[in-house]
UniProtKB/TrEMBL annotation:
InterPro entries from the UniProt entry: Flagellar_prot_FlgJ_N
Region listing for Disordered, in residue ranges: 1-32, 102-124
UniProt key word Cytoplasm: no
Composition skew (Low complexity), residue ranges: 1-16
Pfam families: Rod-binding
Organism from which the protein derives: Stieleria marina
Name of protein: Peptidoglycan hydrolase FlgJ
Domain annotation Flagellar protein FlgJ N-terminal: ranges: 52-98
A molecular-function term among this protein's GO annotations: hydrolase activity, acting on glycosyl bonds
Record EC number: 3.2.1.-
Keywords: Glycosidase, Hydrolase
Length: 124
């Protein structure tokens, strides 16, 4: 099933898909801001799903038997959204970096400097 064809993703007013689909009609600064917010939202969803799977691996769970799915799901969404604000995985930063490579005239911080930011490094 294609979620875009059914309209389930694009029909929500707060859906990040709307930002991505409308990105072509905006200027470069607005595109960079949209990509940054979509990246943060994606990171939030990714972290929420990761937390959900981690919680599902527990035998008893945190919230008891009744309502554990509801409360656990809300907990996962909340924690995922809060964690994504600090960008622990760097997904939003990587998306923005790739966008800036493809559109070098993009100025995300509002200044006139054209200095390239250092590449994101990861340590294992």
């Amino acid at each position: 099933m294609n979620p875009l064809a059914s309209g389930s993703l694009a029909s929500s007013p707060s859906s990040p898909m709307l930002d991505v689909m409308g990105a072509g009609s905006l200027d470069n600064k607005t595109n960079a801001k949209n990509i940054e917010s979509v990246g943060t939202e994606f990171e939030s969803v990714f972290l929420s799903m990761m937390l959900k799977e981690m919680r599902n691996s527990l035998e008893g769970g945190f919230f008891g038997e009744e309502g554990s799915d509801t409360y656990g799901g809300m907990f996962d969404l909340f924690i995922g959204k809060e964690l994504a604000q600090s960008r622990p995985l760097g997904i939003a930063d990587m998306l923005l970096e790739q966008y800036e490579k493809l559109n070098p005239s993009t100025d995300t911080d509002g200044s006139d400097s054209k200095e390239a930011s250092p590449p994101t490094s990861f340590t294992a």
